[in-house]
Every structure is written in structure tokens, then in C-alpha cells.
Design a protein that fits this description.
Blueprint (H helix, E strand, L loop, with lengths): L1 H4 L1 E2 L1 H10 L8 H17 L3 E2 L7 H8 L8
Parallel strand pairs: 1-2
Length: 72
């Protein structure tokens, strides 16, 4: 199945959340919380997210936000 071979990148998680805000701002803590929620939803539906390893999600988000600078 396509979901089983699909791998979601952290930048896609951040971009997805930012695109759903519709002009509203978001705190860093809320962004991290929503990314954790989205990551769980993706797993629950049978797809995979790139493993963050031992790195805290906050660090991953800090590195990923600049990749989505057009939305930030």
C-alpha cells in the first residue's frame, strides 16, 4: 500500500500546521504540540514520519521552521 511506503518529513509536518492557521499566529509551544498530534495521526493511519532519534521535537522544529520561512 502507498501509506506503508510513504515517509513524511519534519518540514512537511511544520508546513502543514502553518498552512492550517489561516493568518493567525502560533506560539512555539503550540506549534510543537500540534506537530506531535499530527505525527500521531499519521502513524495511526499507517504512514511513517522520519524518526527524530534522540533529538527532542523542539530541536527538530527549530531547524525545520526556516525551511518554511515563506509561511512564517
Amino acid at each position: 500500500m502507498i501509506n506503508e511506503s510513504f515517509l513524511v518529513m519534519p518540514s512537511a509536518l511544520v508546513g502543514t500546521i502553518l498552512l492550517t492557521l489561516r493568518g493567525r499566529g502560533i506560539s512555539f509551544a503550540e506549534l510543537v504540540s500540534r506537530i506531535e498530534w499530527l505525527r500521531c495521526e499519521i502513524y495511526d493511519r499507517g504512514s511513517l514520519v522520519v524518526d527524530f532519534g534522540r533529538e527532542p521535537i523542539e530541536s527538530v522544529v527549530e531547524r525545520t521552521v526556516p525551511l518554511n520561512k515563506i509561511f512564517v
